[in-house]
Amino acid sequence: MEEQTVSRDRHSPIPGLDPEATPLLGLGLGLTGLALGLRPRLAPVPLALTALAAALYRDPERTTPNEPGVLFAHADGVLLRLEEVYEHRFIHSDCLRLAVSIPPFDVPVCRSPIAGTVRVVEQVSGEYRPASDPEAGDRNTRLYIGLDTEWGPILVALVAGPLGRRILCRVQPGERVEAGARLGTVRFGARADLYVQRDAVQLRLTPGQHLAAGVTRIGEVAPL
Fold first, then answer.
1. Which of 38, 51, 93, 168 is spaced 20 to 30 A from 22 at the CA atom?
2. Which of 51-55, 152-156, 197-201 is the least confident region?
3. Which of 29, 190, 36, 34 is closest to 104 using CA atoms?
4. Is 194 found in the same domain as 174?
5. Inter-axis angle of helices 44-56 and 21-38, to 10 degrees?
6. Phi, psi torsion values for 51, nearest 5 degrees
């Protein structure tokens, strides 16, 4: 069974990095120092690996504007596709699904697109197809996080990829989150999907657009 951890945000001793990066960076810097003392010519190798780990475990602080009714991006990455589907797990309605591919060197932290209350946290086991596969969102191992908002339900799905098979969840049912709050992490070329009711929002984005979680405005709540 794939590992899933449900927890609140943890304080990182290194600003801008996930707490899980701390032992990796400590080990890398230690090996770099050891190499400098014994074989200086080899020091660039552990130093480069340490820099790579830092890039993969980025988790910068972000300030999401206080703009009620605005929908923000849920993940860093490229919008693969925008399609109409029927969502049967939580929303039970015709929806628009925004599929975002998260490249390995983009920030792997998924955030809440709008303020709401977490109602569902559910993991589904599956395959590990590439993020670009049209069926990855329905076939891969994924973690669903459903939120109730003032204007209706939304659903975020963290979809594991061939390399990043571990999904970390940072919220739990009943928890109130603000727009831009961290929901979870999935690394190494994964995908994150956002489901919104088809007639509830007006989206303003196009496939191929690069998004920044909690920062990029992707739409507004549709007027009643």
1. 38
2. 51-55
3. 190
4. yes
5. 170
6. -65, -35
